[in-house]
Amino acid sequence: MNIENERKANPWALLPIAVFLLLYLGNGIYFEYIHPLKGQMGFYVVSVVLAFSISLAVAFAQNRKYSFEDKIHICAQGIGDDNIVTMLFIFILAGAFSGIASGAGGATSTANMLLNVIPHNFEVPGLFLIACLISMAMGTSVGSITVLVPIAVAISANGSLSLALCVGAVIGGSMFGDNLSFISDTTIAATKTQGVAMKDKFRTNIKVSLPAAIVTFIILTVYSLMNKGELIGKFDFNIWQALPYFIVLLLSIIGLNVFIVLSIGIVLFGFVGILTGSLNYVTSLTSIGNGISGMFETMIVTILVASVTALIRSNGGFEAILEFIKKRAKSRVGGMTGIAFLTGFMDIATANNTVAIVVAAPIAKEIGEEYGVEPKKVASLLDVSSCIMQGIIPYGAQLLVASSIAKIPSFNFIPYLIYPFVLVVFVIISILFDGKSKYALEECE
Question: Is the pLDDT of residue 443 over 50?
Fold first, then answer.
């Protein structure tokens, strides 16, 4: 049977997404806030893998005009897309890099080294700046938060500073770096699904993210000048353990292929770890294996999402969303706004910025083609919008991890999440100004 026939808009094709929301978000809210379970995070009661598996089963049950074999073929085409396969390979390398970097002590040494050069009374903006750099180098906001929040707690206690503010600065900086890092899974997902070079997406993103970061840094600096803390002392570090991060960051910025960058980083951290005694042959292999294992859920979710979205597309679900947006978006600005809201909604639903991007990306690509939004701008909107929501929602992994380390409720951080809220303003400005760009004018001619 030919499964490439012209599809008609079918809102019922979106039922698998509704099922996922009910299972994952519904149970998460119930077990986190209504009936909390002692010693367990509510949003981890129902695995995201299980929720997507059930939604995939629902997608298979729809549309009787396709046989079971037809639906398997549709899923195989979705999973076998060049961008999906590339993402999966990069996830393996990114996990290996993160694992051996952590095992070698690189992240901790880098953070401590930077803390030692920050002037007294500038600890809070310093934490934000360090989080920006560490997250860009590591490519993971959760990893950066895990490394830096214990330091933020120590700075808060030793310097008589607001704990929520110190941790909020770390979360904001971590989201900035995650958004811009060349080895971040959100960057990988956003660029590969839109078929654009990482350096092009980086150049588009930085026009929005960097001004927001500068404004945030200024706000935190003013706070520091008005609220002087106490001397916090010195932190131990090893310059050799920190060096590979800066090399990886430099190689990423100059646009070297991500596979090469990650491979170089793995070799450097393995060498430095053995040289400094933080690793040996056995622990190096174990660290790499643990890092790769930590990416398994992300990889499985990516496969499931590719399958679900392929079936939703074949059943007319994307056409239904496009039709809904077209009725309300009358211009390029409306199209970009639709992409931002769609991605933000997906992140609220999934509490995972990478998953949100993977789910929203195919629809966003069609919206971009419909309204003349260049692919690098679509990729930027996907990444920025998902990172904004992921850096704000109290049930996301970032705030929950920070909450568990700092021993205060995740809701306490929200008033101090300055960077994500400032970034919203700059995204709006960017959309309004880009609507009158040269590219948009050429599309209209």
Answer: no
Identify the burial level of 68 via C-beta atoms within 10 angstroms of its C-beta, where 0-12 means exposed, 13-18 middle and 19 or more buried: exposed
Q: Is residue 355 part of a domain?
A: no
Alpha carbon separation from 48 to 45, 53, 355 (Å, rounded):
9, 8, 10
Domain count, the chain: 1
At 7, is the secondary structure helix, strand, or coil?
Answer: coil
- Residue 90 has phi, psi (to 5 degrees) of -70, -35
Please tell me the distance from the alpha carbon of residue 111 to that of residue 100, in angstroms, as a whole number.
Answer: 17
Q: Residue 128 domain-assigned?
A: yes
Cα distance between residue 35 and residue 101, in whole Å: 38
What Å distances lie between residue 133 and 128, 170, 186, 207, CA to CA?
9, 11, 17, 17
The one-letter code for the residue type at 221 is: T
Give residue 187's identity as a one-letter amino acid code: T
**C-alpha torsion angle, residues 213, 218, 222, 223 (rounded to 10):** 0
Contacts of 143 (CB under 8 A, 6+ apart): 98, 102, 107, 135
Integer Cα distance of 298 and 365 in angstroms: 22
Q: Phi/psi class of residue 120: alpha, beta or left (left: φ > 0; alpha: ψ in -120 to 50)?
A: beta
What is the value of pTM for the model shown?
0.71
Instruction: Note whether residue 19 is domain-resident.
Output: no
Q: Helices in 254-374 by DSSP H: which ranges?
A: 258-276, 281-293, 296-314, 317-328, 332-350, 353-371
Residue 444 has pLDDT above 60, yes or no: no
8 Å CB contact between 357 and 84? no
End-to-end CA distance of the chain: give it in Å, rounded.
Answer: 40
d(CA 278, CA 105): 7
Q: Phi/psi at 427 (nearest 5 deg)? A: -65, -45
| pLDDT tens, residue by residue, 181-232 | 877 778 888 888 888 888 888 888 899 999 999 999 999 999 888 876 555 5
pLDDT 10s digits, 304-322: 888 988 898 888 887 787 7
Has residue 163 been placed in a domain?
A: yes
Domain that holds residue 91: 84-293
| 8 Å CB contact between 409 and 395 | no
Residue corresponding to tokens 């990478």: 354
